[in-house]
Every structure is written in structure tokens, then in C-alpha cells.
Amino acid sequence: MKKIILSIDGMTCSACSNGLEKYLNKQNGIKQASVNLVMANATIEYDEKYLNQSKIEEFVKQAGFKSLGQFKEIKLENKNRKEKIKFIIFTILAIALMYISMGHEIHLPTLNIINPHTNAVNYAVILLIITILFLIYGFDILKNGYKNLIHKTPNMDTLVGIGVISSFLYSLYSMYEIIKGNHSSTMNLYFESTAMVIYFIKLGRYMDGINKNKTKQAISELVEITPKNAIIKKEGKEKEVTLDEIQKGDIVIAKPGSKIAVDGEIILGKAHLDESFITGESKPVSKEVGAKVMAGSMNYDGYLEYKAEKIGKESTISEIVKLVVEASNTKAPIAKIADKVSGYFVPIVLVIAVITFLAYLLLGNELNVAIITFVTILVVACPCSLGLATPLAIVISQGVCASKGILVKTSETLENAQKVDTIVFDKTGTLTYGKLKISEVLNKSNIEDNKLLQLVGSIESQSSHPIAKALIDYLKENKLETLKVEEFENVAGCGIIGKINNETIILGNSKILERYNIKNEYLEDEKMLANNGNSIIYVVKENKIIAIIGVNDMVRENIKDVIDIFNKKKIQTIMLTGDNKETAQKIAQEIGITKVISNVLPSQKADEIKKLKEENKFVMMCGDGINDSVALEVADIGVSISDATDIAMDSSDVILMKNDLESVSNLINISKKTIKNIKQNLFWAFFYNCLMIPIAIGVLKPIGIAINPMIASIAMVFSSMTVILNALRLRKY
Length: 733
Prior knowledge:
Helix 10 packs antiparallel against helix 12. It contains 24 helices and 26 strands. By secondary structure, it is an alpha+beta fold. Mean pLDDT is about 85; it is low at about 645-650. Strands 14-26-25-24-15-22-23 form a 7-stranded mixed sheet, sandwiched between helices.
């Protein structure tokens, strides 16, 4: 299976996106298609044995839309000067049209040549000419409405198109009657309604475009932070180049006050860099030789030379934008409900409008009254606000999360985060920094400490476990050579084994002693080290314990405050670790966690998560994304504490670019505010339609309340603006 994201042109409302999504999902070879109205794109997973991009684009065309090729970047809709001038001209025409058609009714001065009482034919012809100009202006609406009707996916444009054409044709018939001499038919001309409906639809879309840009701004800012040019070092000389000219392996220079151009590794210099655009960390980070740098970071105070490693789409920024865009293209459960309603809404409105039209005629009303009521229902019921209610809020919240260094992979995760009632934390590298140091060595042999640690460090150099780094760092700090290791073996959850100079050495926790039936005479020593917060490494040679090493880790600086936040929110916190009970309990007590599950193998962590879920807990698991991968997948929501340059963690649903668990609290808060906002939007959208459709039908006519198509189009714009402005409040978080 292959995945592609296409930019789509021609979508104007939720019925458009729903119709295209349904059409694509019906096609053979397409496994799943998800269409995003706000981002104007479609994510399609398909079988490349049967389909390719051109065939999929043909499906898009058949559905009545246009593919603009693969989605490459978030494009803000720039209203150019020509578009603005066109809009201003039609605003002037709209004012002129309203003056001509209604000025005489409110006793405004009117030229005799266009007075409907004295020159009815002139009056009708002028209105017709202006209306034709508006029909040309709104031709895209009529065209899309027709196409979607033909493809059996009627949408908002279909409703507007049918209403506008019905009103226009009836006005043409009335004009014919005027020309024949029946001047009383001037009262049955509705050219101004035809034109003004188009005008207000265009006005709404113009404003939608501006506001949709705001929803994409937080994401698009990520793209714009990288500089357009950079300085590279070639043959000892500096050369300014564009980003596209930089190749992997090039030496790039970053001077004080300039931005890092591409991801890479520092080979010369030292500086403080601002990485807040990705990590959310406001403090500048000190970087020196060997450290990784990310494109877009601001160099405050030092001269740096770094080797280009990730360029173009491989960069951290590009990966983040890709993840956020893909996440905004997934459907949250609440969005699926709204989409389903929108899909049925247009056909139901068409049926209501036709029934009302026939009922008016059967009850003896004049044809013009029946037609105007028919048109009003179609225009007032356009489901724009209903379709914008969810995707706008989701896209804004995704952008807010990204700007705070929280990468949420699916909209469903963003919605479900507010349901979390239990958070399970891995210890090493999650609750602690994972930067272990040797705190104590209990040497039970006649080997010198340095030589003993050289043996241990050499075997640990073959491992990627956080504990291994403490031993490797010891070798580097003491300038000890790494010895040759043979027959290395990793025993998951227990330890490691290796041979040095034909002697087998076993390293690990108490479980490895049980596994190989090694007698433990040092339980009191283990307890003493554990009570001091150490993780324990037994060193075994020739089936005999020759040393016990205590390795200590620092808990995260603000973790106690973070746990306190969760406790106040009535969210249960649990530590899940492979460490012994004493070590785990000591750290848990220190930071405020009341429940500890210790001595657990990596393979058993997932079982513990399952047990919690069986108790009807909604479980979030926070881990390092490596040893905890299975548990992260089993949890309702898996959260990875990530190094900022490594974000491709398939096992997790959320990646924290800023290695700070306070981001989890932020995620839950954003989720709660987003769902609250969506519910408000859906309420106002449904309330609007439930209120306006009966008024359009004429239920309140007996008490003097009625509307026409022009008022209906204004009300529709107002409804959409209410939803958009409410969704934009999320940006203030």
C-alpha cells in the first residue's frame, strides 16, 4: 500500500469534501481516503498494483473537482490585487442594483429612465444586465453545483445553483410578461435576489479564505522559519548558496544572529541556539562540537561550522509539517458524526424545499411566492457552518500543539486525550533524565576497580540501554580503551552477556541471576544500594558474582509539580519499571506517585497496560519509544519522550519534542478546550438551521416574520462567521 496527499481545488463546503471522500472510497484499489476541507487536500492510501497518481486524479475529476498534484506545502490564499479590484467592482454593482430595485420603495430619488412605474421595460432590462454580470461572477458556483448533482453528490453549490437559476428563470418569465405589456409583473422580478445571493456567497468565501489562512498560520510558520540562503565552506572559502544547493556532507557556517539552514552536526565552535519553534523551550540551548542542530534554530552568540545531514524533506521541520498535515487529515470521531449529518443534510433540504413549493401551490398561493420560498429554503440551509465546525477547530488545535512541541499523529488522539483518567510512566528516561552515572561500585573480586569497569564498559558498549551509557561515559572520562567483545547477547529485561579474552561475563539485574541459577549472597548490599535510589548491575564471572554496581539517575527537574497537576485533575499516575521495588518506591515517593509496578520485563509492560484497560481505565502510556514500544501501542494513547531530532516513532500517538512531561498536561487541556469548542460550533450550526429553515418555510409569517433569498444569504454568511470566529479563539491557548 502507498499513501499520497493531493491538493484539491473546487471544494467549498463539507458536503463537497464528504462527497469526494465517499466517491474515492468506493473506487477499487483505494483502501482509505480522507478529505480535509480546511487544508484543501486529500490523503489517499491505495494499492499501487492497480492504481497510480494519474488514475486517482481522474477519480477526483470524475467527482467534480480538480487535483493540483501532490501536496507540497501549506499555501496561504493570497488575494491578489486583481481579485480585490473585482470584488470592489461587484460590491459597487451590488449597491447600484439594490438602489435601482428598491430605492423607489423607500422614496429615494430615482431617475425616470429606470423607474419601474413609468419605464418598466428599461427597469427590467437594466436589472437583467447587472444580474447576468453576477451570474458570470458566480459561474464557478453554478458549475460546481451542476457537476456535483450529476455525480450524485449534491452540495452547498447545488443548493445555491438550483435556487439562483430558479429565481432567475422566473424573473425572465416575468420580464417577458412586462414586455408583453403586463407592467404589474415588475412586482415579480427577483433579479436582485439572484445577484445578491451570489454576492453574499462570494463575500462569505472571501472572508472564509482570510480566516482559513489564520487557521493554517501556526503550521505554515514552521515552514517559513528556515532561511532562504546559507553560507557553505568550499575549499576553505565561504560561498553563499540557496537551501536547494546544499548537499549532504557540505560544511555550513552559522554566524551569530543567523539561522541554522539544515539539520546537521557541529564540527567546530560553540553557541547558544533558540529551538523554541520546535521544542517550545524558551531558554536558549548550549551547543558544542558533536551536538545536533536543527534547521530554523537561531544562533545567538557563537560561530559554528556544521556538517549537513538532513536536507529538504528529510529535515526535522519537514517531518513535523508532514506529521501535522497528515494528522489534520485524519477524522476525529466527533467529526465523522458531523460529516455523516452533512452528507444527508443537502438531499433532505432539497426534499423539504420541493415539498414546501408544492404545498404553497396547493394551498392557493401565487407561483412567485412559492418560488421565492423554495429559493429561500435552499439558500438559508446551506451547511457551511456545519461543515466548518469540526475541521477548523482541529486544524487550529493541531497548529497550537505543534507550536508547543507536541506532535499529535491523529485527530482521534487529539479528541481522546481529554478522556484520560490514568497515566502510566516508564521510569528511566521518562520520569528521570536517563543520564545515568555510576554512584557506587562494590567490588567483590581481586580485580582493580578500573580494570573491572573496563570489562563491564566494553560489554555495555554493545548495548543501547540507558544504563550502558553510564559505563561508556566512564571509559571515555578515564581514557580507558574499549576491549574486544565476542558472542555478545542481549537478554531482554534481564541484562547482557559477552566474552572478553575467552571469559564469559554476565551483566544484569537480579532476574539474570535467577535465569542462570547463580547464587546471590549479596541481597543486603542490593537493598542498601536500592534504598539510595540506585539501579543495580550484577557482574558475574564463572557463575560467581564479582561486583555489584549502583547506577543513579536524576529525576526531571519539574516532575514533582507535573505529577501534582495530574493528582489535582484526579488523574491516577502509575510508575511502570523493570527496576527493583525499593529503587522504584523511593523515586515514586520523592515525586508524588502513589502506585508502583516494578520488576517488569519490557514484554510484560503491555500486559500491565491491558489489565488497567480491563478495569475500564482510559490509559495514556509515557515512555522513551524504544523499550516501551509494545506498551505504547497497547495503551489508548502512547506518548514518546523524544530527542528533538528523532520524531519518526511509529509506536506512539504523540511525540513530545520538548522533553518535558508538562506538555502532557498541556495536551489534555488543549484537547478539552478543542472538544468544548467543537460542541459549541456544532450547537450554533444546528441551532441556526433549526431556527432558519422553519422561518424560510413561512412558519412565522402569521406574526409578520418572513425572509427572502437575499436575507437568507446574509444569515448564512453570519452563521459561518460565528463558527469561524469561535474556532479562532483556540489560537489564544
